[in-house]
Amino acid sequence: MNKIILYAILLIATALAPFLFPAYGTQLATLWLMVIVALTWDITGGQMGYNSLGNIFFYGTGMYVAAVVAIAMVHSVSDYTDASGGGTFQFTDAQYFTGLFVGMIAAGLFCSVCAVVIGFITFGLRGPYFAIGTLGVAIAAGELVSNWDWVGGGQGIALPVYPGDLDTGKVFFYFLFAATGIALFVFVKWLYGTRFGLALNAIRDDEDKAEGMGLHTMRTKLTAWALAAFFVGIAGAISAFQLIHFEPLETAYQTINLGIFMVVCVLLGGKGTLWGPVVGAVAFHLFKEVTWNYFLGWQWVALGALIVITVVYFQDGLLGWLQRMRPEWFGLTVDKSGGKTEAAQ
Fold first, then answer.
1. CATH of the domain spanning 27-314
2. CA dist., res. 39 & res. 252, Å (int)
3. What is the rounded CA–CA span in Å between residue 56 and residue 263?
4. Torsion angle (degrees, nearest 10) of CA 66, 13, 306, 34
C-alpha cells in the first residue's frame, strides 16, 4: 500500500512539474533524459557487470537516425544537408509529428541492431578492456559522422522547429521524455523479476560458472545491450527534435559529457538496484545545475570532486549508504547480536 501511495505521488508530481515550474521546462526534460540513460546503463553495468563507456554511441546514433528518417519522408536528405544551403524546406504539422514518432521507433530499432553487431565483437572483452573498447566505438562513430557530408558532416543537422509556441514545445518534449522514462522504469522493474534478470545477475557474479551451468551468456549479453540501446536510441531521437540543431562531436557523441554523466548517476545512486539510477540521476542533475549556475568556471572541479567523494566514500551509492544508516526504511531489521541485516517478516 505504501508503494502504491509513493508511485501515485511521483506520478502526480511528474504531471504537475512543468506547470508548477514553467521557467525550468528544459531542465526538467533533461532530468528525465538523465534518468533514462542511467537506467539503461545499469542494465548492463549494474545488473550484468559489464561497465560500458560507449552507450553514448546509441544516443548519438539515435539522433542521426531519427533526423534522417524524418527528413527522408519529405525531402531529399542530401539536398537538405547540403553545406552550401540555398534551399527552402517546409514541413507541415502532420509531417513533423509523423517524422518525430517514426524516427523514434526507427532510432530504437536501429540502435538495437547496432548493439547486437557491436556486441559480438566487444563482449569478447571483459573488465576495463570492454569499457575501453566501447569507448573507442563511440569516439570512432563521432569522427566518422563528422566527416560524412550526406548527414551534414561537422556542421550537423538542423531539424524543423516545433510547430507551436516555445512554451508548448517545452511541455511537449518534457512529457515525451517523461513517458519514455516511466515506460522504461516499469519495463526494467518487470525485467529484473524474471529469469532473464537472474541470468544477468549470474553473469555479473561469475560468468564462467554461469556458462558452465548451461546459461547462454553471449545471447543474454546481446539481448540486454540491445534492450538498453533501444531506449537510449529513442532518447537520442527525442533530443534531436528538442535541440533542433545538433552536431556530431559536441552534441550527439558527447563522450566526455553525457557519456560520463550516465555512469556517474548510477554510481552515485547505487549500481545494480532498481531505484539507484533514478535517485542518482536526480541528485547528480540537481548538483550539476546548481554548480553550472552559481559556480561558473568551477563546475568541472565540483563535478570531479563529487565523483571522487562518491567512489571513495559511497561505493554502494546513496541507496547503499542509506540502507546501512536507516535499514528500517527498507523493511530491514538488524540483528544486534550477530550484526547481520535481515529482511523483516
1. 1.10.3470
2. 19
3. 11
4. -10
* Cβ count within 10 A of residue 338: 8
Q: Is the dihedral of CA 280, 282, 283, 286 positive or negative?
A: positive
Q: Which residues pair with 162 in a beta bridge?
A: none
The whole-chain average pLDDT of the chain stands at 90
Ramachandran area for residue 21 (φ above 0: left; ψ -120 to 50: alpha; else beta): beta
Q: Which long-range contacts (CB under 8 A, 24 or more apart) does 91-100 make?
A: 91/160, 91/163, 93/163, 96/70, 96/160, 96/162, 96/163, 98/73, 99/69, 99/70, 99/71, 99/73, 99/74, 100/66, 100/70, 100/237, 100/241
Residue 336 has pLDDT above 60, yes or no: no
Question: Which triple of cell numbers denotes residue 83?
Answer: 553545406
pLDDT in tens, 303-330: 889 888 888 888 888 888 887 777 766 6
Give tens-digit pLDDT for 19-78: 999 999 999 999 999 999 999 999 999 999 999 999 999 999 999 999 999 999 999 998
| Helical pair 25-45 and 2-20, crossing angle rounded to 10 deg | 140
Domain residue ranges in the chain = 27-314, 319-345
Which has the closest alpha carbon to 242: 84, 73, 26, 34? 26
**Which tens digits make up the pLDDT trace of 126-138?**
888 999 999 999 9
